[in-house]
């Protein structure tokens, strides 16, 4: 059997409202106190655009150092002595930057990992990531969800990998062709260095050293 008696309604006194409001204000002040005095908070579209701009700025900074026509950067330290460094090495340039933008820091970390694992390609990986973000910004502005963009980039990466595997040629069984491939690779890597005028000579030295490892 159900008890159908009316449940008495709870009355809220008017005097309870000020205390509730003060509790909410106290909670809001507690959240604000989580940040330091110099800290700023960005949300939503503003934070997303700041990430895009910071990352693309880093990519544009090192883009002009890439390739045979790449230019050197003059870096001046702000510490004691103010030493000056002239370089077109992407890893050296990015290590000397002091960045607050989170997305820009991610690109710098990418270049560090590339330098540690491979030892080359630090500028290329930053420029590639920056261009992917530049195109992603256009898609986000067209109201495409970021997860859909990420899924599309993963599909594109798989297609690119399959295309490279199909075009790859293995000449390790032919000594002459294998050595010629190594010469082309070595000369390509020296094209953007200070040794580019004598790249054939230094490429031959590098290839001869590698072939002796056999």
In short:
The chain has helices at 16-32, 44-63, 90-95, 102-117, 122-141, 146-167, 175-189, 199-212; strands spanning 73-76, 84-87.
Overview of the molecule:
This protein has about 210 residues and is mainly alpha-helical. It is about 60% helix and about 5% strand. The protein has eight helices and two strands; from the N terminus they run ααββαααααα. Strands 1-2 form a two-stranded antiparallel sheet. β1 and β2 form a beta hairpin. α2 (about 45-65) crosses α4 (about 100-115), α4 (about 100-115) runs antiparallel to α5 (about 120-140) and α7 (about 175-190) packs across α8 (about 200-210). It starts with 15 loop residues before the first helix and ends with a helix.
């Amino acid at each position: 059997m159900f008890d159908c008696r009316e449940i008495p309604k709870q009355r809220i006194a008017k005097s309870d409202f000020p205390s509730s409001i003060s509790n909410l204000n106290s909670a809001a002040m507690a959240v604000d106190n989580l940040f330091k005095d110099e800290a700023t908070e960005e949300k939503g579209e503003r934070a997303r655009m700041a990430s895009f701009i910071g990352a693309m700025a880093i990519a544009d900074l090192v883009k002009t150092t890439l390739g045979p026509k790449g230019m050197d950067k003059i870096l001046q330290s702000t510490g004691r002595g103010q030493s000056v460094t002239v370089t077109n090495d992407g890893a050296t340039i990015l290590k000397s930057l002091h960045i607050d933008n989170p997305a820009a820091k991610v690109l710098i970390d990418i270049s560090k990992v590339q330098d540690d694992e491979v030892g080359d390609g630090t500028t290329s990986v930053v420029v590639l990531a920056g261009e992917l973000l530049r195109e992603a910004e256009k898609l986000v502005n067209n109201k495409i969800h970021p997860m859909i963009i990420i899924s599309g980039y993963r599909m594109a990466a798989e297609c690119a990998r399959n295309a490279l595997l199909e075009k790859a040629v293995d000449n390790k069984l032919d000594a002459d062709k294998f050595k010629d491939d190594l010469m082309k690779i070595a000369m390509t890597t020296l094209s953007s260095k200070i040794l580019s005028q004598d790249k054939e000579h230094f490429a031959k030295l590098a290839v001869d050293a590698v072939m002796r490892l056999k």
